Amino acid sequence: MTTPSLSRRRAPLALLLAVLPALLLVLPAAVRTPGGAAPVASAAAAETRSCAWTLQIAGDQVNALFPDQAARYWVAFVPLPPGGRAEITGSFPHARYLSFNTYTVQTQAIDAIHDAQIVPDAGSRNPYLAGARRDVRKRDYTVSVVNAQRPATGAPANTIYMTNVDGSKTSAGYATIAERIYEPDHGRSRTGDAGLPAVRTFAADGTPLVTYPSCPDTSLPDLGYTPVLAGAGPAQSLSALLGLPSVVAPAEVRWHKYVNLQTTAADQLTENELTAALNGPLRSFTEENFPTGGFGENVDNKYIYALVSADHGPVLVLRGTLPTFVATQDGQKRFGRGQLRYWSMCTENAATAYYACLTDDQIPIDAQRRYTLVVSTAAARPSVAIARCGVAWLPLGPLPQAALLLRNMLPSPGFREAVQNVDPGSEREQMGRYYPRARYYASPQAASRAIGCSR
Prior knowledge:
Elements: H1 13-25, E1 49-50, E2 53-57, E3 71-79, E4 85-91, E5 95-103, E6 109-114, E7 140-149, E8 159-163, E9 174-184, E10 198-202, E11 208-211, E12 214-215, H2 225-231, H3 238-242, E13 256-257, H4 261-270, H5 276-289, E14 301-309, E15 315-321, E16 342-348, E17 354-359, E18 370-376, E19 392-395, E20 401-409, H6 427-431, E21 437-441, H7 444-451
Parallel strand pairs: 7-8, 18-19
Antiparallel strand pairs: 1-12, 2-3, 3-9, 4-7, 4-10, 5-6, 5-9, 10-11, 13-14, 14-20, 15-18, 15-21, 16-17, 16-20
Helix pairs in contact: 4-5
C-alpha cells in the first residue's frame, strides 16, 4: 500500500473554479446563531482526520456554495481506476444527520447515501433508525464509492457510485465525495465526536492501492467575520430614501423551488420592478434547457428561495407553520420521528455565503406551531424581534438585498406539503400553511405594532 502523492490529491480544476469566487469574496468567519447565541458546536475542538478530506465548507472555514450554519461539509477528491473503489470507514456521529454524496466536476450530485440507509458493521448498531438508542457504544460503518455506473436494481448495500443509473452524470477518474454532518449534539465536537472517517482505495480486482494517512486538524482560524458582516447595514436603504425602484427584488416576496443554478440566476437578473416582463420567459427557458440540481446540492434536501430587498421596507416579517422534526441536539436517548428530519431558514448573499441561519429548534412557535420571523439589519431590528416575545430574527446583512433560503430535509411519506413534493410555480398552493407569507413594513416601530409581544 502507498500514501497519496500531492499530485494525486489535487482537486479537479472545474470544482475549484466553481468554488474560487466564493473563496475570494468570503473570509473565514465564526459559526454563531443570530443575536450572539452560543455556537452550534465547538469549532475549536481539534481532531485527527484522514488526509483524504482536503476541503471543509462551513461558516468559519469556506463559507461558500450556500452551506447551512448548523452543518459542516468535508470534501475528498480521490482518484480511482475503472471498477475501483474507495472504502470509507467511520463511526456514526452524535448528530442530527450524516450523509455521503458523490459529484460531477460541475458540482451536480450523482449518488448518495444517508445515515438511516447505512447498514452498520457487524457487532455495531445504527443510531439513526426510528426508535433506536442514540447512545450506543458500538456504532461503526463502512461505505464504498465505486468507479462504475449504478445498476438500476440490485446495488449492494452501503455502496454509492461515480456514474448515475442513466449515465447522464459521471466523475470518471476522480471521486468527488462530500461528507455532511448536521447539528452535533450539545457538547459534542464538530464531527459529533466521530472524527472524520478513514479512506483507502482498491483496484477493480481488489488489489490495495492507497491508504490515506491521518492528518492533524488544519481548520482555518476563526476570524469572526460572518457575524460582523451579518450585523452590518443601515436602518434604511438608500434607494428607499431616494424613492428609486428596486432593481433586485419584487415588492411581493415570491418563493421559488430550486431547479438549477441557471434558473436562480435568471431570477436574480430579472425578478424586479424594471425587468419583470422577462422573468417568465427566461425561467421557462432555463428550466427546460438545463439539467436540474448542481452547485453541490444535497439530494436529501430540497429548497425554496426568495429574493428580498429593504428597498420595499426595512423590516420583513415572515409567518408560517413549522413542521414537526426529529430533535436530537439535547442528547435525546432515542431517535424520534417528525414530518421532516431537519428544517432551516437562512439569509444568503450573491457570493453563495450565508449571513446567518435559524434551525427548527431555534424557532419560537405557538400552540398551532405557527411562527413569526423578522428579517432586517441589526440597526432596523424591531424591539419585539426577541425570543421573549415569541419572535425569531435573522440579519439581512450589509446590503439592502439578500436571498432567503428554506431547507426541507428527508420528509416523512405522509408530509405532502414538503418542498420535495412541490412543483415549481405551485409553491404557495402546494405547501399550504407551511409556505412562508411575507410583508414589508416601513419602520421597525410599524412592525413592532403589527407583531406585538405575546409573551
